[in-house]
Amino acid sequence: MRYRAFGRTGWEISEIGYGMWGMGGWTGSDDDVSRRSLALAVESGCNFFDTASAYGLGRSERLLGDLLRAYPDRRLYVATKVAPKNMKWPAKAGDALNEVFPAGHLRASTEASLKNLGIDTLDLQQLHVWHDNWAGDERWQREVSDLKREGLIRAFGISVNRWEPANVLRALETDLVDCVQVVYNIFDQAPEDELFPACRRRHVAVIARVPFDEGSLTGRLTPDARWPDGDWRNVYFSTQNLAETLPRVERLSHLVPEGMDLPELALRFILANPDVTTTIPGMRMPAHVERNLAASDGRPLPPRLHDALGTHRWDRTAVIE
What we know:
- The protein is 36% helix and 13% strand.
- By secondary structure, the protein is of the alpha/beta class.
- It has one domain (3-310): TIM Barrel, CATH 3.20.20.
- Helix 2 crosses helix 3 (59-70) and helix 2 packs parallel to helix 12 (286-293).
- The longest helix is centred in the last third of the chain and has 15 residues, at 239-253.
- It is globular.
């Protein structure tokens, strides 16, 4: 496992972290399997774990708490998120801050997460939704400053809306934001335009989420793909999105080098960007952990292949989350 500096914090973070959404409540999740997968990740050098209060209503955080107690001598970095009070994803331009993150909500959520995790301080607390219309509002700024000053959180971040990577640039200007979490993968390359350069200038860490485009970049998606009722992927892969996605995956598959598969290529594309601090594939089984973490070996993509992957950029505008 290779490590990268987490922005201005100075932390050394595994360049492949652990996304814990799936084990919080997706269909097919099994807590015992999740625990084995998490333990294998630690033994393989992963030290960054991203969860959220909304993942299984605290279930994912509690699983991470179990892991922390199982490895008391390892420095494991904990990142979680404050769910919007109105429980609406994503945030819209017309949403009022006091409806989404009202006074006291950040503190209450932070305290609840600390209890779920069984720790005294969060390494990284993030807002799970955001709109830059709120950037100049002193209410959230004051709460973040207080949480840092009181030692409840060490760093603060914002998880930006899907396909709106520039919808955080004003917030970065406050210098309160230590980290931005954004969708970035072979298809979703728009963060390279404005967000990554802004983060680079301000020494803000970047967490690249959804490295496999919710599964399309695993190469296993089929035209008749369906999931149990309530599974998020039924929403994301609507009939239209599925029909547009599959031909793009097919064209991309012709670029996969011998001895590599599409998921590995997807991870290596992300790791090739020095602006990315870590990427957080969702992993619910030990086999996923072994395969994904193996991509952190320092082997670069050939320049011609990297350039060819750049031509598969897909700019989408319908904001869903």
